[in-house]
Amino acid sequence: MKNADGTKKSRLTNPGLPWSQWQLLDSILPTGGFAHSFGLEAAIQTRMVCEPEDLKIYVVHLLENTGSLLLPFVYSAFQSPNLQTWYKVDKILNATLTNEVGRKASIAQGSALMRTAASVFTEIPSLKVMRQTSLGTGVVNFHHAPIFGMICGLLGFDSGTTQRAYMFVTLRDIISAATRLNVIGPLGAAVLQHQVAAIAEDLSNKWMDRPLDEACQTSPLLDTVQGCHGYLFSRLFCS
Amino acid sequence: MDVEMEDLKTGTVVVEKVMGKSTATRCFSKYPLKFILPRKVGSSQTDAVWIYALTYGGGIVSGDSISCEFTIGDGCTAVLTTQASTKVYKCVGSRCSVQIYEARIGIDALLVVIPDPVTCFSTAKYSQKQVFRIMSNSSLLIVDWITSGRHESGEKWDFTHYKSTNHIYLEGDEPLFLDTVLLEQGSTVTIAERVQDYQVLAMVIILGPKLKHVQTKVQEDVKNMMSEQLQLPATSLRRYSAPSTSHSLIKPSFLASCSPFGPQGSGVVIRIAAMTTESVYRFLQQQLASLEPLVGVLPYC
């Protein structure tokens, strides 16, 4: 095909890739992320987050903790997107997510993502096969981070994009939860998301490409607060 | 253990049943560590070996490296504790201090780790790792905690680096609990900002059949305590521009949450953030009081 001035139109080497990327990161993908507030609901009820300024601080701490604790799992699964690695990484993550609220949320989101990806990305039949092989066996918990990394690896994303994308979906979901909890309005949320983007980029760079044994949590207060979700008198979210 | 291996270890303790009683059959320690095993703790009915870990000079000096191994034999009970809070002194020449404990706990054995908190002084760099390898029916209680520093001198979360790792493995190297907390002074976010007004962070792990009663009580107590604090429904706390003097905006001074972990929820982990060290000591006294028959005295009294 040619442009109006006669020059050749450039074609993508992997034409489906950007469309898959956008679809995976779009909140409309049915992965149930909307059911989780990442401890924000509990943070509000423990008066840790009262005003939009507190929210920004909370979001930054959450992103750093996501980077430090979960990016290694995204990265490991991304590098070797096969059954054996998935099982191994999932098992280690299960022992690492010591907070039951967080652990259950991860399993719920991971299961939903795997089910959706297996149905949507039919050009990767191994997704469906791996899912069918593993369902109901109890050998894998279907945690979110390894499944996310594995899907990105199989779709052909690059490593940096994959890890940034994981941070992005976390940011996307916490901002969304904040609007539903009425801490901030939808426009303010969009403004905040853009403000935090530069920080999210720095954090992604800081924590990406690390081995599993470097996974750590950098916000123990967040972990404590998230664990209180079960004690909340009235709740909107599962976690 | 042959002589070369011994040189690598700062301390070793082996506890085995001798004539039906838990007994330390081996106890070795070298500078900067000293183990003290008092003969009599509790009544003559108590079957427990108490191990006090002391550091020369009362604290960990920059660059110190401590590596210990503990073996708790089948059916035995051992308690590992400190005489005072572990002070980590200021960093000299950017050398990080390291402490590594590795423990093997046998079938039906119990290890209780109840130290005083770690206090890192300004600019300190400290890393600790505790690895526990347990068998079926082992019981384990671990308290791991840190205070913000020397509050009297105005040092609050003023250290450079603190890392604490706690790993629990079942037989066959199966990971059961893998946790690492990292508090590092950042250029954009300080540790104080991460921890906000809280001055003490604590984690308590309770696992195994001998501690079921402790688990049940702590889960119930924490749930009740926190539910009281959180009773206000979310609607009344939603503020865009409320005055910050409003009573409902005061943070709880003691925050705790309990989480089961492991197959069939065999373990429980409690995470605590508190504004005073005393409140955590009180909590630990109350929750661990039922350990007295097992270990001989009331912990943290």
TrEMBL record, chain A:
Coiled coil: none annotated. The keyword Chaperone applies. Keywords: Chaperone, Nickel insertion. This is Urease accessory protein F. InterPro entries: UreF (IPR002639), UreF_sf (IPR038277). Signal peptide: none annotated. Belongs to the UreF family. One of its GO terms (molecular function) is nickel cation binding. The keyword Chaperone applies. It holds the Pfam family UreF.
